[in-house]
Amino acid sequence: MNTKPVEFSKFYKLLNAVKEGEGEKKVELEEILIAYKDSEHSESALHQLGEKFIYIGIMKLYEYSEHDNIEAIGNISKEEWKEMAEDKKAELPPFLANAMLNYAKEEGLSDIISKRWNTTKREIDKNLMQMARYITEGIIDSIE
């Protein structure tokens, strides 16, 4: 398995720029999300997993916040986040991470990725939780 470090700092910087009101970056963000949804240009098995989880995480962020505008999401107050957590009976971080893990299970993501990258399903499975946490933290840090 490719051991090149997996990191998405470029994506998180872009997400933060959109949150900060850099409107010209919205199109770039949407293009990256479309590419991550399909993850056809991933560099490795774990990179593909991360891309899929970023896509799921952002879609679930839109669902949770009832906004599909990152700038608007960035302007949600702590009180509003608290109200959303009560309404949805879940804080945002576990909501996002669980959505990623559920998607992986329901879609057989470990099988798909392991076959593409000629690695074991077990190797992907053992990275699911850590990747979901990493991606969730990156999303949360970028929108705060």
Search tags:
single chain; 144 residues; mainly alpha; 74% helix; globular
Summarize, please:
It is built from nine helices and no strands.
- Pairing-aware structural class of the strands and helices? mainly alpha
| Count of helical stretches | 9
Radius of gyration: 15 Å
Q: How much beta, percentage-wise?
A: under 5%
SSE run: HHHHHHHHH
Total count of domains: 1
Question: Rough shape?
Answer: globular
Mean pLDDT reading: 93
* Low-confidence sequence ranges: none
How would you sum up this structure, described in words?
- It is a single chain.
- The model has no long low-confidence stretch (mean pLDDT 93).
- 32% of the residues are buried.
- The protein is 74% helix and 0% strand.
- It is mainly alpha-helical.
- Helix 3 (45-65) crosses helix 6 (92-107) and helix 3 (45-65) packs across helix 9 (128-143).
- The N and C termini lie far apart (34 Å).
- The protein has one domain (9-143).
- It is globular.
Write the layout of secondary structure elements.
Elements: H1 9-19, H2 26-38, H3 45-65, H4 70-74, H5 78-88, H6 92-107, H7 109-117, H8 121-125, H9 128-143
